[in-house]
Amino acid sequence: MRRQIPFLALAAAVAACSPSQSPSNAGQATAPAAAPAAPAADARQAKSLELYRTLYKEQQWELAAPIGKEVVDKWPDSAAAKEISGTLADVTAKASDIATRRRLVALWSYQSGKESGGDQVTASIYSSDLAADKRVRLILRRHSAWGQSVYLFGGGKGFECKGTCSLAARFDDKPQKIAAYLPDTGEPALFIKDDKGFIAKLADTRKLSIDVTEKGKGPRTLVFEVGGYDASKFPQLAKKK
């Protein structure tokens, strides 16, 4: 009598001879297909566009500019990018102007207090030299007893100037001759003779250049970014009686 192979044993043998499937492959075979990324991108575009519209309406140019740029850079062919592109150049320019204005304002320093028995207010700004030891200060000063003065204050031995000397200056590249003189005190300063006219020109000037010669050094041009000057922080003083 022929022996028969049990059914369960036969099934096991067939399964063993079948191609095996690794656990990782099995997982891949049963995992659902990944959802498309487009809906998520569309949602981000819509959110950014809505935020840009809000900031534009509120004239928050510095906040709106980077958001608009991101949309245009990431999704250049989208409807959101097309809408934003119509105003982005103007928004970016306004944001840049605000940042520049803030930087220029921060260059000025204003002080008030008592000096030699009188009230004094000053407005000052350093020249644009990168090296601190080369910087020269432009100082506007009002004193209740001494009156108004404008002068350059440097380091070292001061400036070359005999009697009343003439300095070549440029107010936003508009040439101007400035009469100047050295103080009797021997300080490293150079006073501007027409202080009133000089201060009046500052209101409409962004960059001031003055050619000077410092003692023991060669001639050079001092550059002051004066566009952030605020006349309201340099008030008139009542003269001391």
Please explain how this structure is put together.
With 241 residues, the chain is α+β, with helices and mostly antiparallel strands. It has two domains: 39-105; 109-233, Immunoglobulin-like. The chain is 37% helix and 26% strand. The chain has a nine-stranded antiparallel beta sheet, with helices on one face. A hairpin with a 2-residue loop joins strand 1 (109-115) and strand 2. The longest helix is centred in the middle third of the chain and has 28 residues, at 79-106. The radius of gyration is 37 Å and the shape is elongated. The N and C termini lie far apart (142 Å).
Task: Map the helices and strands.
Blueprint: H1 7-17, H2 23-30, H3 38-57, H4 61-74, H5 79-106, E1 109-115, E2 118-126, E3 137-143, E4 147-153, E5 164-171, E6 174-181, E7 189-192, H6 195-202, E8 208-213, E9 219-224
Antiparallel strand pairs: 1-2, 2-3, 3-4, 4-7, 5-6, 5-8, 6-7, 8-9
Helix pairs in contact: 3-4, 3-5, 4-5
Task: Give a nutshell description of this structure.
This protein is an alpha+beta fold and 241 residues long.
